[in-house]
Amino acid sequence: MPIPVLTIDGPSGAGKGTVSRLIAKKLGWHYLDSGSIYRSLAIAVQKASVDLNAVDEIVKVAEGLVLEFECGDELVVKLDGKDITHQLGLEQTGGIASQIAALPKVRQVLLKKQQDFKQLPGLVADGRDMGTVVFPEAENKVFLTASAEKRAQRRYKQLIEKEIDANLVKIINEIEARDRRDMDRTTAPLAMASDALYIDSSDMTIDAVVEEVLNLIR
Ligand code: DC
Predict the structure, then answer these.
(1) Predicted TM-score (pTM) above 0.85
(2) According to DSSP H, which parts of the chain are helical?
(3) CATH number for the domain running over 1-29+123-218
(4) Ligand 1 pocket by C-beta < 6 Å: which residues?
(5) Is the domain defined by 31-120 classed in CATH 3.40.50.300?
(6) Can you tell me which atom of ligand 1 is nearest the CA of 181?
(7) Which residue, 121, 120, 144, 119, is CA-closest to 131?
(8) pLDDT digits (tens, 9 = 90+) for 115-133
């Protein structure tokens, strides 16, 4: 029996995580937050004090990455048995994740770890290259985006709610730099799959986005 896959790709802060989790819950499907795998690797690399230019060492850390995901209301991620959920959300972690995600060898090592999430009754996969590289065979693909300003405002609100210090102008600059890095890299850049549904969530509520994606599946 073919395993249904819904891919939701797009830049950071477009609402992919929230939308993907809500849809996975509604459908009773598994959820892959591929960004959290790159973010976990960023934390593991920092923990091992590996230089960001030492590609072979980063690849070794990627090969030995032991992660556990607990999917409740919030996604809990453990690295070597230790809860790293709080660190995962830090802007610095996202920045390093984006840098090491540009390394083709790293992407190769992490490819199978992501494909292993494809299990019955189905999978919602959120990331940058889910519909183009990791699950090109998926029958339902979405490209979810929003303006950089809107994405920065949402990110700022999330951080303040989590009582993490934040500066809006700095976040806009970081988001734009990360978009450029994710789109300009040669391996699996952030790009819309030719068969994906394009949704701009700038002026949409989360519920409206969820409804539009569910219509696609129906
Ligand atoms: O979605 P996120 O912000 O948690 O992702 C963090 C970084 O990881 C992102 O800037 C680029 C990288 N990433 C990637 O290259 N490919 C993916 N499928 C998911 C994330």
Answers:
(1) yes
(2) 16-27, 34-47, 55-63, 85-88, 91-100, 104-115, 148-161, 168-184, 206-217
(3) 3.40.50.300
(4) 12, 34-35, 38-39, 94, 97-98, 101, 127-129, 178, 182
(5) yes
(6) 10
(7) 144
(8) 999 999 999 999 999 999 9
